[in-house]
Amino acid sequence: MAMFDETLLESSEKRGPVLTSIHWLIIIGVGVLGYILGYFTLPLVFAGTEGGALATQCLTLAIVLGFYAMMICYVWSDTGHLGFSRPLWVGITVVLPLLGFVLYLVYSASRSGDWKRATMPIAYLFEAILLGAIILYPLMYTQTLPQAQLMTMLVAPPPPPPPPPPAPPAPKVIIHHVSMEDLLKAPTVIPKTIQQIKEQPEAPQAAGVVGGVPGGVPGGSMGGVIGGMVGAPPPPPPPKPAAPKRITVGGQVEESKKIFAPAPEYPQIAKMARVQGLVRLAAVISKDGTIQDLHLISGPPLLVNAAMQAVSKWRYQPTMLNGEPVDVDTEIDVNFTLQE
Predict the structure, then answer these.
(1) DSSP-assigned letter for residue 250
(2) Phi-psi group of 186: left, alpha or beta (phi > 0 → left; psi -120 to 50 → alpha; rest → beta)
(3) Would you say 57 and 64 are in contact if contact means Cβ atoms under 8 Å apart?
(4) What is the mean pLDDT of residues 48-61?
(5) What Å distances lie between residue 303 and 55, 272, 296, 335, CA to CA?
(6) What percent of the chain has pLDDT over 70?
(7) Deepest of 74, 120, 126, 194, by most Cβ within 10 A of its Cβ?
(8) Helices in the chain by DSSP H: which ranges?
(9) C-alpha dist (Å) from residue 23 to 7, 31, 109
(10) Does pTM top 0.85 for this prediction?
(11) Which three-class secondary structure state does DSSP give residue 202?
């Protein structure tokens, strides 16, 4: 507490704090007003800002405005104690918030001879900025990714292909009906040549046995053997169905068996930001069991790289279909949980 007494809370050991209770009420009021203002204006400025992202951005705006009010209150009160030009330094701090406040600290330290007035607050200032950048920025970035991914998924599908051309019309067949009168009508013109038709002798038929023989086939067969089978050869066996090049896990297709699956390493920045959740990936398990075509479906951005690096090293037992290895389309879930 003595360290703060020598810097922002007191300008010297002989008088009270620079920031009184009234100043702190003003600072808190400005921060609350900034949160309410951001809650109603940020969704109008940035489309799609809602939920956790809106709360994080409103909190960030409240902290920035509260810190801005604290710098102005400090300069206003301290210039009155030290006898400096109040309108000059307050105006500089309002126009150049951070730079003007640092210039005032350096100026007041040089005039009073106490350099702790400048070095200690500047160190606290940069530590606060660095800590806010490490904590708040990943939270804001994590909340905005699913909205962009949802907009990508809502893109209209390509138009369907045009229908095939219609089939050509079938040719017309003209049918002439011949009546019995036309057949019995005497010809009106005598033909010049008459074609002679020679009758061919019928081929001898195989003699059969009345009532058949044991082991015969009904109706018999030409050139058959008594007691034998039909002369036609048996039909060939049906062709073996070709195995598909790729199948998908689901239904009657069981999930492939993992034989090597190292656990992912939890990123340090995700632990600091308290980010946890499920990362869902899509991949193809090749015929030799390796991971191919690995890409992201959903998940927190701070955890995606660790999940993809780990899954790319996994190995599976090859999936067999009809005795042949095939590729398998699958989805892989990697769950990150913080230890309490």
Answers:
(1) B
(2) beta
(3) no
(4) 72
(5) 22, 12, 11, 9
(6) 64
(7) 74
(8) 2-5, 21-45, 51-82, 86-95, 97-112, 116-153, 180-184, 268-272, 301-311
(9) 16, 13, 22
(10) no
(11) coil
